[in-house]
Amino acid sequence: MKKTLFSIRWFRHWFILIFFVHSSVSYSRQVTIGLFPGTEMKALFFSVVSGNYKVLLNDTIELNASEGTLFFLQPAKNGFLLSDSVNSIGIFRKIYLKSTGDQNIFQFKPILPLMKSFDYDDDLVLVSENGNIKATNSVNIEKYIAGVIEAEGGSNALPEFYKAQGILVRTYLFRNVYRHASEGFILCNTTHCQAYKGRSMLNYEIYEAVKATEGLVLADSGNNPVMAAYHSNCGGMTITSDMVWQNHVECLQSIHDPFCENSRNYRWTKRIPLNQWNEYLKRNGIEIQTINYLQNTGVRQKT
Fold first, then answer.
1. How far apart, in Å, are the Cα atoms of 57 and each of 61, 91, 261?
2. Are strands 216-219 and 43-50 parallel, antiparallel or unpaired?
């Protein structure tokens, strides 16, 4: 999630914890997450890390894939060319890597552009779209929440932090369940929604915290999920929602937060060349004289 600096005030008459299941995800207990939307993926590897999969090609051809099976996708006319470690399999427009059990894991690595590889739980769907590869991960809700907790909160926090973070992640999910509906998935894996780098692997206490809070979300007096905005570090002070957004959100208030002072990302630096900053201001219609010099006054501000 983007580092918008809000604080949720936990007043009894505003919020209650409820068991909440949204109709669009209640039956399968899975959510569909877009992997790197907006990235023009042209080629990638994917492989089976654990378990057994069915590989459905154009919804008609079926292959079996077991642990260690590696596939490669590259551009082709009218779709993409699928190959394994030995042979070319064919040209297809849709590939569905469907898990056959509860503990199936695959690895996903874009090659064009070159990106890091990540391990994911459950299913992978690849579709040829306008010459690019559109990738989505259909994953169990609680496994997804564990992955977001590790990506957003790290692997060295206390169990109670993971419980609170799990409730916020789940609340954000159900609040924004239609955010990317027009693109064929619920949320994306970037900070536009919630950072999701695949399965949680570094601290089993994350899974225990997710299990302990399973089904819990923060809701308002009308039993609607609240806007559960969060950040890695507020810099010591949050701001109200209407200082960033057009609409006022009652639960997002400005408070002093001393706990952030000794946490990661409390101090950070972003360097931008002056000419780029001037061009950015002009593109956004901000009428100022050209900035030629910046002086460090020693005052730290978080924006």
1. 5, 9, 52
2. unpaired
CA–CA distance, 244 with 59 (Å, rounded to integer):
45
DSSP state letter for 132 = E
What is the tens place of the pLDDT at every residue in 234-261?
888 888 888 887 778 877 888 888 888 8
Cα–Cα distance for residue pair 88/193, rounded to 1 Å: 36
Q: Can you tell me the distance from the alpha carbon of 139 to that of 69, in angstroms, rounded to the nearest whole number?
A: 20
Distance CA 150, CA 174 (A): 19
With H, G, I as helix, E, B as strand and everything else as coil, classify residue 247.
coil
Q: Which of these, 28, 232, 59, lies nearest to 144 by C-alpha position?
A: 28
R_g (Cα) of the chain, nearest Å = 22
pTM value?
0.80
* Residue from 133, 54, 53 nearest 92 by CA: 133
